[in-house]
Amino acid sequence: MPWWYAVAERDHEIQNPTSPEKILLLGERLRLGADSDVLDIACGKGGPAVLLAREFGCRITGVERAPEFASVARERVAAAGLNGRIEIVERDATEFELESERYDVAMCLGASFVWGGLEGTLVALAPTVRGAGHVVVGEPYWRRWPLPEGVADEGFVALAETAARFANAGLRLETLIASSPDDWDRYETLHWRALEEWLDANPDDPDADELRRRHEAYRDEYLHRQRELLGWAIFAARRFYAARSSAGSASSARNVSDSSGCRLGPPASTSSSSKIACAWGSRGLASHSARNHE
Ligand SMILES: C[S@@+](CC[C@H](N)C(=O)[O-])C[C@H]1O[C@@H](n2cnc3c(N)ncnc32)[C@H](O)[C@@H]1O
Fold this sequence. Notes:
294 residues, alpha/beta, Rossmann fold, 20% strand, binds S-adenosylmethionine
């Protein structure tokens, strides 16, 4: 059987229910520039990475598991003349070393399942962001709560509870870019067209019946329930500032503690010796490395 997503997402520039305009808005909100280092986990065919690097000149490391998508991403990067700005690493994200405090932005659009959901993704990504950088996640949420009977929550929650997961991870939510019905329709119906065209072109394929069954089931689910109930948004949250470790700046009037015990203050030096004075920083790193890097 051909890989479902290689067929269904053949024509997608961006493999999520969002738009090029919203990706560029994200870049503006993050204040990306030529000095910014961005990690793009599960970068797919590189749609968001190419848009951001072309517009803002930032450096991007994209990590993608599927060879089908990583190769398209590399072609797109080359065609856009961005080889010097974007590197595509073909690897399972759980096997990619998340260097401590390496990036200004760590982003994962539409793949929080890599770490078992949003909470695990925040634990994994926050320590790789330096200073007051950003963790960005594209994530579904339920528009209606409680859900109608018979609809499984799939681990997602309502919008406010989704936002609360960032706060619980010690992150300050700063930007929300939600998908419109048009974004959803474009994303979903590009699947339909690609699948219909593939089925027309391969009527005798032994897997054609199974592909049609699955395509029609997904389409019906979208029309009957998902379009009304499921939202999706890009959430961009900032790390707490790391306090400087020297006695002088630690006693500075601008360094204060918040209620969670994280020290707030001016952006720290980004040198590797800077320490994150926030409890979750060390906890998150430890639990992440225990699960994925040992
Ligand atoms: C919904 S798509 C999003 C792609 C891209 N972020 C975008 O917005 O266009 C999810 C991507 O996650 C990739 N993926 C799934 N599991 C992965 C893993 N464990 N490591 C790296 N990539 C993974 C898939 O191959 C797919 O390209």
